[in-house]
Design a protein that fits this description.
Strand order of the largest sheet: 4-3-5-6-7
CATH superfamily of the largest domain: ANL, N-terminal domain
Number of domains: 3
Radius of gyration: 24 Å
Oligomer: single chain
CATH topology of the largest domain: Rossmann fold
CATH architecture of the largest domain: 3-Layer(aba) Sandwich
CATH class of the largest domain: Alpha Beta
Helix content: 25-40%
Number of helices: 18
Largest sheet: 5 strands, mixed
Number of strands: 28
Distance between the termini: 55 Å
Length: 555
């Protein structure tokens, strides 16, 4: 399908077509209809003008997911400025650094972020506005404060006959024009500013429309849990839904099990986007303990009774997620193989996608009814994938991608851009194979790959997958010291407390885990020891472990 002339035109069309539908809600608090969003966008444009913002200037946004964050984001694009989403979990120093590096002129912040940052550390900002009400928290010139105080009056003067759908007039973007600078969450290295063009935003939202066209309809609802400052959540819990006339419910609080289950029961989302951590926690706590009973396992292997038990397990999981969704799309990190095998066995309607910030984010996907277990789908529309390997079906190589979703490069970092974009191909840094049907199987990160004593390729993620299925292991990382492999394990402390297990007992369990694991893997991958970690591993906001922090850990 030919690229439309303007992504902002898609936004304008959706607002007009869904004028009186619910658009965004802060769950449990308030709701904006599409017409409300349109009016607030115009008011923010007035603030931009007062602050001297020009087309192409950068506007940073940092705070928890909420409706006014989303509206400020759309106001930025439709004005012709460049949005710079900043993960609110970043340390204040990182926020200062990103705002300065991106040359942002304005910053929208949530209350928690505002308490921690220092405006003096960001000298190029004209002002800082609140995500809660767009009040001016800090300004270097009086004009923006005056405009905020008179905003309703200025809006009324501009639109004396009220603001109507025909009044909408947005910046006409070009496909290669810069829309967003998204700073990566730093799983393997420091953050880089990924320059995302309008064509990539359109292609990702169009992809979601193509694969969910008759599954998610205007007026349906979704629950937004992933950070919108990360492209996974932005594309598939926000941008697509807004262009489709879908009601977005932002879970503005920390998603504790109680809050999350209530929200899912209330909203009954038409689709669920999540990271493996959520699925794994639910399965480990609510499902695995029940089916590990020898009697239940025996019954599950019987033809008729087994099918009934599996159906009951699957139905219980579906109800836990609201009961009316089409599928659960899992992404952002690898799903444990034991958990995935169980999901497949009971007939749970899940699928696993593959993406990267540099592709805004989708690279591969497949509908759950055709999804191949262990894979992460097939190349997404308008994308081409290949394996840098002499035998792509059997010998892992780096996954390369090209197509409409690929970034323009890294902001003010030509060296990193040249290393990552080569002859039109984006080098993902991931290792994998592609079978004859086009299914992609990821083996690990090229930066994480280790070399055995005799030159064997060792993929720590595969060892970790097996280790994480063993007793009392909640999180783990495999590292190399010289020619030996070691495991770092954060135990299931909640379970340990219930069983009254002390450190000596945990060490004994981990030693047995090491022996059991070594029976399952080749000699060159076997662990020489396991170290118990006292605290959870530090993670990125998408819940991936920051592996690079632990490669030199003491054993």
């Amino acid at each position: 399908m030919q690229l439309p002339q303007s992504f902002n035109q898609v936004l304008a069309d959706s607002i007009r077509e869904n004028w009186t539908r619910n658009s965004m809600s802060d769950y449990g608090e308030f709701t904006f209809q599409y017409k409300d969003v349109a009016r607030i966008i115009e008011k923010i444009h007035i603030l931009f003008e007062a602050a001297g913002v020009r087309k192409g200037d950068k506007i940073a946004l940092c705070g928890r997911n909420q409706s006014r964050w989303g509206i400020a984001f759309f106001a930025t694009l439709t004005y012709g400025a460049v949005a710079v989403p900043v993960l609110h979990e970043f340390h204040p120093e990182q926020v200062h650094q990103i705002v300065n590096h991106s040359e942002a002129r304005l910053l929208f912040v949530g209350q928690q972020v505002w308490k921690k940052i220092n405006a003096d550390e960001m000298p190029n900002l004209a002002g800082i506005l609140s995500n809660e009400d767009y009040n001016v928290l800090f300004a270097r010139t009086p004009e923006i404060k005056e405009a905020r105080e008179k905003l309703n009056l200025l809006f009324g003067e501009r639109y004396p006959d009220s603001f109507r759908p025909e009044n909408i007039s947005y910046h006409k973007d070009e496909p290669e024009e810069l829309a967003v600078i998204n700073y990566t969450s730093g799983t393997t290295s420091n953050s880089k500013g990924v320059m995302i063009p309008y064509r990539a935003l359109w292609s990702n939202t169009q992809f979601a429309y193509e694969v969910l066209e008759d599954k998610l309809l205007p007026g349906d609802a979704v629950l937004s849990m992933l950070p919108m400052a990360h492209m996974y959540g932005m594309a598939f819990e926000f941008l697509f839904e807004f262009t489709r006339g879908i009601h977005i419910n932002f879970l503005t609080k920390v998603p504790s099990p109680v809050i999350l289950m209530k929200a899912l029961a209330d909203i009954k989302p038409g689709i669920l986007i999540c990271v493996p951590l959520i699925i794994e926690k639910i399965v480990r706590k609510a499902v695995l303990p029940k089916i590990k009973d020898p009697k239940v396992r025996l019954l599950m292997n019987l033809p008729v009774i087994g099918d009934q038990i599996k159906k009951k397990i699957c139905e219980g999981m579906k109800q836990a997620f609201g009961g009316r969704y089409y599928e659960v799309i899992i992404g952002g990190a690898a799903l444990n193989q034991e958990i995935e095998a169980l999901l497949k066995d009971v007939g749970f309607n899940y699928t696993i996608g593959y993406g990267a910030t540099e592709c805004a984010p989708i690279l591969a996907y497949e509908d759950w009814t055709r999804f191949r277990q262990g894979s992460c789908g097939k190349a997404a529309p308008r994308m081409e994938l290949r394996i840098d390997s002499p035998d792509p079906e059997n010998i892992p190589g780096e996954i390369l991608a090209r197509g409409m979703n690929v970034m323009l490069g890294y902001y003010k970092n030509p060296e990193a851009t040249a290393e990552t974009l080569v002859d039109g191909w984006y080098h993902t840094g991931d290792l994998g194979i592609i079978d004859a049907e086009g299914n992609v199987f990821i083996k690990g990160r090229s930066k994480n790959m280790l070399l055995g004593a005799n030159g064997q390729n060792i993929y720590p993620e595969e060892i970790e997958d097996k280790l994480s299925s063993l007793p009392m292991v909640q999180e783990c990382v495999v590292i190399q010291k010289g020619e030996k492999m070691y495991g770092l394990v954060y135990p299931d402390m909640e379970q340990a407390k219930k069983l009254n297990l002390g450190m000596n007992e945990l060490k004994a369990i981990m030693e047995q885990n090491r022996k059991d694991l070594n029976l399952q893997i080749p000699a060159y991958e076997q662990l020489a020891g396991i170290r118990i970690m006292e605290h959870e591993f530090e993670k990125t906001p998408k819940r991936s472990i920051k592996r690079f922090l632990y490669k030199d850990a003491e054993i």
